[in-house]
Amino acid sequence: MVQNLQAVSDSQSEQVRESAASGQAYFDRIMAEDSRIEPRDWMPEAYRRTLVRQISQHAHSEIIGMQPEANWITRAPSLKRKAILMAKVQDEAGHGLYLYSAAETLGTPRQKMTEDLIAGNARYSSIFNYPAVSWADMGAIGWLVDGAAICNQVPLCRASYGPYGRAMVRVCKEESFHQRQGFEILLELANGTPEQKQMAQDAVNRWYAPSLMMFGPPDDDSPNSKQSMAWNIKRFSNDELRSRFVGMMVEQVEVLGLTLPDSEIRFNEETKMWEHGPLDWNEFREVLAGRGPCNAQRMERRREAHENGAWVREAAAEYARKTAAWSAEAAGVAS
Ligand code: 3HC
């Protein structure tokens, strides 16, 4: 009996090894062809973990990112601005949902991802730990933060994991609208009174460096980039995307009639890269460690919102239970 069980177990392990070997061969071919992995395909555990890490961090960023702008909905200067801002904040909630759904296809439930965030065990983008102190900040966030998001996320539309790449297509379309609305707020302020123009310049001055840091640490300090690029998740390094973003902003800031707070921006003809002045990576590390200007407030609000939403989750679960019971009953009557 024991021998039989051992034989069954050996044969099962052999099957697992064989399917892993053929799965790895399939995965390698998909990577070489620059094609897509889908949820049911075999994938290395490290690839799965990397995707869950990146996609869940991205989803948390979208959800926490609603806070700085939601604070301004009641103070928007006109009905039109209020409607636009509300639509934008709702879009961010939608982005969070697509991304949580994409991450769930990898086997991690949304509840677990949310619990990790609430417990302070998950990251979200550094940028959302800075305060939005004036209406012009809505412009700077739209133009710079959503601009950086587009620059980072358009290449993610080609990410090797199907559900992530497909979610990013829609996210990027909406981010383009967000960037345009931010640009337009700044343009109107820049062409307004001297005080309004100053307000716009001040907002750009404060959001410029944190936006550049959104792209992540310099390449030499980025432990995940190399492998993520080999797996066709990331298509460009953090520094490449940051440089590309600086090049975009240099042109657009002229149209705004404002300036970027960086006298060291230049195009390097040899490397064909835009260069910028030094960034305070110590500040970045502090923000990531939870000691940024608004980390505590953002997390407190997120926890509060989660607790206040408990009744909605309970009601949804109860509705699902009742619907399943009704369906089962109806099926019983029919048979
Ligand atoms: N904020 C917080 N953490 C950051 C960060 C940032 N700006 N940049 C890097 N990190 C973290 C990484 O998560 C990693 O930590 P971990 O290993 O514990 O997960 C560590 O710093 C080292 O960085 P790496 O460069 O090695 O990490 P990645 O290869 O994952 O690259 C990334 C970082 C470029 C942010 C990449 O994960 C990515 O492209 N993510 C998808 C996009 C995203 O999440 N954007 C967040 C903003 S969402 C947004 O902009 C909403 C819009 O509405 C404005």
Quick take:
With 335 residues, the chain is mostly helical. The chain contains 13 helices and two strands; from the N terminus they run ααααααααααββααα. The site of 3-hydroxybutanoyl-coenzyme A (3HC) has 29 residues, from helix 2, helix 6 and helix 9.
Notes on the structure:
The protein has 335 residues and is an all-alpha fold. It contains 13 helices and 2 strands. Helix 2 (45-64) runs antiparallel to helix 4, helix 6 (136-153) runs parallel beside helix 8 (194-213) and helix 6 runs antiparallel to helix 10. The longest helix has 32 residues, at 2-33. 33% of the residues are buried. The model has no long low-confidence stretch (mean pLDDT 95). The structure holds 3-hydroxybutanoyl-coenzyme A. Residues 53-54, 57-58, 61-62, 65, 92, 123, 125-126, 145-146, 149, 152-153, 213-217, 222-225, 228, 234, 238, 288 line the site of 3-hydroxybutanoyl-coenzyme A.
Helical stretch tally: 13
Briefly note the structural class of the backbone. mainly alpha
Topology, number of strands = 2
Residue share in β-strands = under 5%
Observed structural traits:
335 residues, two-stranded antiparallel ribbon, 13 helices, 2% strand, globular
Q: How are the SSEs placed, and which strands pair?
A:
Elements: H1 2-33, H2 45-64, H3 66-70, H4 79-104, H5 110-118, H6 136-153, H7 162-190, H8 194-213, H9 225-230, H10 238-256, E1 266-268, E2 273-275, H11 281-291, H12 295-308, H13 310-334
Antiparallel strand pairs: 1-2
The structure holds 3-hydroxybutanoyl-coenzyme A (3HC).
